[in-house]
Write a structure and sequence with these properties.
This protein is mainly alpha-helical. It has 8 helices and 2 strands, in the order H-H-H-H-H-E-E-H-H-H.
Length: 246
């Protein structure tokens, strides 16, 4: 039975369109922030990886090229690529490069540095990209961020394509920085839910104990009040005094 298609099954087209638009106008690179903010928002407020599983156009593109078009050798992904030390190490490196890009944008905005109309592949190789931007269209810092962010997105795409060819189609997803971040957020959310569940269970058990003990306490108080009203307590005191005299 053929699987029913959903609208988000065609988001691989968006991935192609994004890089194509950035090739002609670098300012379209800002749309890539959707792929940064949306998965984080879903993970924080939804506590799941719906974006990675259904909405990631890049992952779908790798599946199309590697799976449907047989561009992948389909070899097992090396274990070290999915290891914690590599995933979090790559995440730290990625965030460092992202922070450096933001800092360069700040320097351009502050007038301490000039606009560089070029992109950097693999954070090393500078490639002229000036035809994609007309000077003065927007503030220089806006354009600088576009060049830097497009460099980041294009580099990650090329890395994904390389590991797609060498291993399984979606090998990139095993150490994708966004996937690592959303996974960490989801774990924290799940731990928070488990903690709340345990606390709720303890409160429920505590209330159950109160409900069990309460009838006894209530009955004892009724007995004592009746005893006092019927002068039973005075009788007990009198009997005790008489015993002392004897």
């Amino acid at each position: 039975m053929k699987k029913k298609k959903h609208w988000y099954d065609y988001l691989w087209i968006w991935a192609i369109l994004y890089f194509a638009l950035g090739f002609f106008n670098i300012l379209f690179a800002w749309f890539g922030m959707i792929d940064f903010l949306l998965p984080l928002g879903i993970a924080i407020f939804g506590g799941n990886k719906f974006f990675c599983n259904h909405l990631c156009g890049r992952g779908q593109l790798f599946s199309k090229l590697g799976g449907d078009l047989k561009c992948s050798r389909n070899k097992p992904t090396p274990r070290w690529m999915s290891s914690k030390w590599f995933r979090y190490g790559f995440l730290i490196f990625f965030l460092t490069m992202f922070g450096n890009m933001v800092f360069q944008t700040y320097l351009v905005g502050a007038g301490s540095s000039s606009l560089r109309e070029a992109i950097k592949l693999f954070w090393t190789f500078r490639v002229p990209w000036g035809w994609t931007y007309t000077a003065g269209t927007v503030a220089d810092w806006v354009a600088q961020f576009s060049f830097g962010f497009y460099s980041l997105m294009l580099t990650s795409l090329l890395l994904g394509l390389i590991v797609m060819v060498l291993y399984k189609p979606r090998t990139w997803c095993t150490f994708c920085p966004m996937g690592t971040m959303t996974q960490g957020i989801c774990k924290l959310k799940n731990n928070e839910k488990k903690t709340k569940k345990i606390q709720h269970e303890r409160m429920r058990q505590g209330n159950a104990r109160i409900i069990v003990i309460h009838p006894f306490v209530f009955g004892l108080s009724i007995f004592l009040s009746l005893l006092v009203k019927s002068n039973g307590w005075n009788c007990l005191l009198y009997t005790s005094d008489a015993a002392d005299e004897l």
